[in-house]
C-alpha cells in the first residue's frame, strides 16, 4: 500500500492550502489513519512572486505551528519541500537548492498550465536543472499536461509524480496506468489543500500503481 505522500499543502498558512492548525490536524490524522507514514509538505513557490528567504521563513513558522500536534497526535512524519513553478531561467535563481525535499537533490517542479508557456526555453531550463545543476526533477501531476510535455520531460530524465485524484479518475486513469507500465512513476501525492477525503482514494490508487510501489514508498532514493 502507498505509505508516502509526496505532495501536499498541509502547512497552516504557508500557501493557499491548510488555513489553520485545526485543518492541518484533521488532514494529518486522516492521512495517518489511511496508512500514510511520511508526508512531504510542499507549499507553492512562485518564482515571480516569492523570494526564497521569505518563503523558507513562512514555511518554518507554519511548520512550528504543528509542533504540539506532532508531539501529541498520531500523524505522519513531515518532510519539508516545495512545489516550484518552473520558469525559464530558474536554474539561475539564487537559493533554488534550498527548495529541494528534505535536503536531498529532489526538486518538485510544477509546469505552467498555460500551453503557450510550455516553450523551448522552459524545457531547456529543465534540462539544465537536471544535467548541469544535478537536480532529480519530479514532475508534479503530469496528468494536467498534454502528452508532448510529459514526453519531453521524461526524455530529459524527469520522474513522474502522480496525484491520487488523477490515478483514480476515469479519464486520466488510463494515462496513469500507462506511465506505471512504462516505469516512469516514482511518486504519488494527495496534493491535499483542504479536503482530507482525498485519502479515501488511496486503496483504489494502490491497485493502479502496485507495480511501482517500492519506488513510490521510497522516493528519496530515486
Ligand atoms: Fe500542489
Going by CATH, the architecture would be Alpha-Beta Barrel
Query: At the fourth CATH level, what is the homologous superfamily?
Result: Metal-dependent hydrolases
User: What integer value in Å does the Rg equal?
Assistant: 16 Å
- Derived from helix and strand composition plus strand pairing, the structural class reads alpha/beta
Beta-strand portion reads 15-25%
Which term fits the overall shape? globular
Give the number of helices: 9
Cα-to-Cα separation, first versus last residue: 18 Å
How many domains, in number, for the residues?
1
> Which distinct ligands sit in these coordinates?
fe (ii) ion
Number of strand elements: 9
Q: Give the helix level as a range of percent.
A: 25-40%
Look at the structure and give the CATH class: Alpha Beta
SSE sequence, one letter per element: EHEEHHEEEHEHEHHEHH
Low-confidence sequence ranges: none
Biggest sheet statistics? 6 strands, parallel
Strand order of the largest sheet: 3-5-6-7-8-9
Mean pLDDT: 97
CATH topology: TIM Barrel
Amino acid at each position: 500500500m502507498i505509505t508516502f505522500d509526496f505532495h501536499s499543502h498541509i502547512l497552516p498558512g504557508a500557501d493557499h492550502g491548510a488555513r489553520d492548525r485545526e485543518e492541518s490536524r484533521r488532514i494529518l490524522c486522516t492521512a495517518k489513519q489511511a496508512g500514510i507514514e511520511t508526508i512531504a509538505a510542499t507549499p507553492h513557490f512562485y518564482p515571480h512572486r516569492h523570494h526564497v528567504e521569505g518563503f523558507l521563513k513562512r514555511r518554518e513558522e507554519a511548520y512550528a505551528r504543528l509542533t504540539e500536534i506532532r508531539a501529541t497526535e498520531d500523524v505522519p512524519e513531515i518532510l519539508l519541500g516545495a512545489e516550484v513553478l518552473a520558469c525559464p531561467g530558474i536554474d539561475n535563481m539564487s537559493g533554488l537548492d534550498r527548495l529541494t525535499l528534505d535536503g536531498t537533490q529532489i526538486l518538485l517542479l510544477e509546469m505552467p498550465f498555460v500551453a503557450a508557456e510550455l516553450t523551448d526555453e522552459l524545457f531547456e531550463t529543465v534540462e539544465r536543472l537536471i544535467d548541469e545543476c544535478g537536480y532529480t526533477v519530479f514532475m508534479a501531476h503530469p496528468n494536467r499536461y498534454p502528452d508532448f510535455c510529459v514526453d519531453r520531460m521524461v526524455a530529459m530524465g524527469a520522474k513522474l509524480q502522480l496525484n491520487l485524484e488523477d490515478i483514480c479518475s476515469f479519464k486520466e486513469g488510463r494515462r496513469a496506468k500507462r506511465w506505471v507500465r512504462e516505469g516512469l512513476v516514482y511518486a504519488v501525492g494527495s496534493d491535499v489543500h483542504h479536503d482530507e477525503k482525498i485519502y479515501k482514494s488511496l486503496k483504489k490508487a494502490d491497485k493502479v500503481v502496485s507495480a511501482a510501489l517500492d519506488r513510490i514508498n521510497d522516493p528519496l532514493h530515486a
